[in-house]
Amino acid sequence: MKDEGLDIATRQDLERTLSEDDADQKILTKREIQGWLAYAAAAEPYSVVCISALAPIVLEALASDFGRQHDNRDLPCNTCVVKIGSLWLDTASFSLYCISVSVFLQAFVFISMGALADHGTRRKTFLLTFAYTGSIATILFAAIRTASLYWFAGVLVIISNVAFGASWVLYYAFIPTLARDHPEVAESKKNVRKGMESWSDYQFIKDKVSNSLSSHSMAIGYGTGVVLLIIAAGIALVMDQTAYSLQLGMALAGLWWFLLSFFTMKYMPAQPGVPLATNANLFLYSWRRLGKTLYQAKSLKETFKYLVSWFILSDGSSTIISLAIFMGKKKFLLNNTQLMIGAILVPLSALIGTYMWLFIQRTLQLTSKQALLAISIAFAIVPIYVLIGFSGVFGLVHQIEIWPTLVYFGLMLGAFQSFSRVMYAALIPKGKESEFFSLYGITDKSSSWLGPLITGAIIENNDTRWGFVFPLCMMVLPLFLIAWVDMEKGIQDAERFSQEHTDEKDGL
């Protein structure tokens, strides 16, 4: 944006931001950046290995082994119904329902910890607490040796996924603070104060650094995820692809998550926020703070406009993943080895795609918003292609089509997630990163309860292909809303909000 086009109020806000004493700013070291990146390597394999690949297969296998005939529930069978409490569920949908429950619970956890984590060094403390909780729950999959414990496997998936989601939200919240303290951004800030660069130059550099941090963390996460998934596939092959061999693969991902988190604990900067008032209620503070923020949402119209669009868009993308696994298993009768190959292709392609789109963005000088819109449009082609399959000619009609489709899907996935969180990071008020990323987590991780729930009901008695109508709508509709987001105004509103709505001024 052109500095000369700013109004007086905005100029005052920017001058206040730039007048902060540089002596109080702690410049990041290379080791501290590595400590932050290390958590992507530690935790992302859980998503790649467990949630995206093995957990659905393991849950279905255990439930099926303990299942009963649909028409005669006194007889056992391989793929029928299983009893949960007083309900009988299709074993094929068991994993979808478990994941739906976990992401629903994430919303409660995200809100309860969000604003609280912005004070002191709680953000890092909470992140590590959830990291060890989730990793231990994942390691316990190695202890399940009988199908009668299928319910315990479901509980472990719920606990580990809630913990993973919570730690990942806190991880995201470090992006804007790391970008502000990055040497390149700090140098640009000094140049603006000296009149050597404009405010728009500073914002461009901060956006570039944010995208670099986000893309590197995404690529590192997918890279380690692929390595662990290949090792898990090797374990499965050696053990004749039994369900327990897949459980060991999940436990390995949990052990990796647990061990590598110690590197993050040692080197990642805590980046403390302002101290929390001594009389604050630790259990209610985040809810009260969020209530105040939502009440004043009109001051952050662009931020909340983006959140609504991302809620829909994220749900659509996550539903495509769940349906793809389900379709491969049921329609094409892929065995565990083939499913594992597919599970490796996606994150490997995502690793390549993350850097591919980062190169495209830098070459074409695209903003994060422009890059996200381009990727989202390309992403929407996946469900369209599947729906074309009703013609019977092509569109995942033949098994050979699976592999190029998965590669294409992966090329979009990593960059899609990376640019989305960078765009959002630019729109949130300083000092409220965890609070606002808890909202992002609800619209990202916790929004995904809706898609599996609805598509699970759609495909219960219909062709799985019909399930892709829902994510197609969810991928296309929010694009108009994102295009409507005014980034310049959003950044200015966030700067102003951070000054006008402190705990003291809001009576907290």
Describe, in plain words, how this protein is organized in 3D:
There is one protein chain. With 508 residues, the chain is mainly alpha-helical. The protein has a single domain, classed as Up-down Bundle (Growth Hormone, Chain: A). Helices cover 70% and strands 2% of the residues. The protein has 19 helices and 2 strands. It has a two-stranded antiparallel sheet with strand order 1-2. Strand 1 and strand 2 form a beta hairpin. It is globular and about 65 Å long. The model has no long low-confidence stretch (mean pLDDT 86). Pfam families: ATG22. InterPro entries: Atg22, Atg22-like, ATG22/LtaA_families, MFS_trans_sf.
Query: How many domain units?
Result: 1
The CATH H-level homologous superfamily: MFS general substrate transporter like domains
| Spatial ordering of strands, largest sheet | 1-2
| Oligomerization category of the chains in this entry | single chain
The overall strand count is 2
| SSE succession | HHEEHHHHHHHHHHHHHHHHH
Helix amount, in percent?
over 70%
Portion in strands:
under 5%
Low-confidence stretches: none
CATH class: Mainly Alpha
Question: What is the fold's blueprint, element by element?
Answer:
Layout: H1 8-18, H2 30-65, E1 81-84, E2 87-90, H3 94-113, H4 122-139, H5 150-172, H6 174-181, H7 183-193, H8 199-238, H9 243-267, H10 285-295, H11 301-330, H12 336-364, H13 368-379, H14 381-388, H15 402-425, H16 433-444, H17 450-459, H18 469-484, H19 487-500
Antiparallel strand pairs: 1-2
Helix pairs in contact: 2-3, 2-5, 2-8, 2-9, 2-12, 3-5, 3-16, 3-17, 4-5, 4-9, 5-16, 6-8, 7-8, 8-9, 8-12, 8-15, 11-15, 11-16, 11-17, 11-18, 12-15, 13-15, 13-18
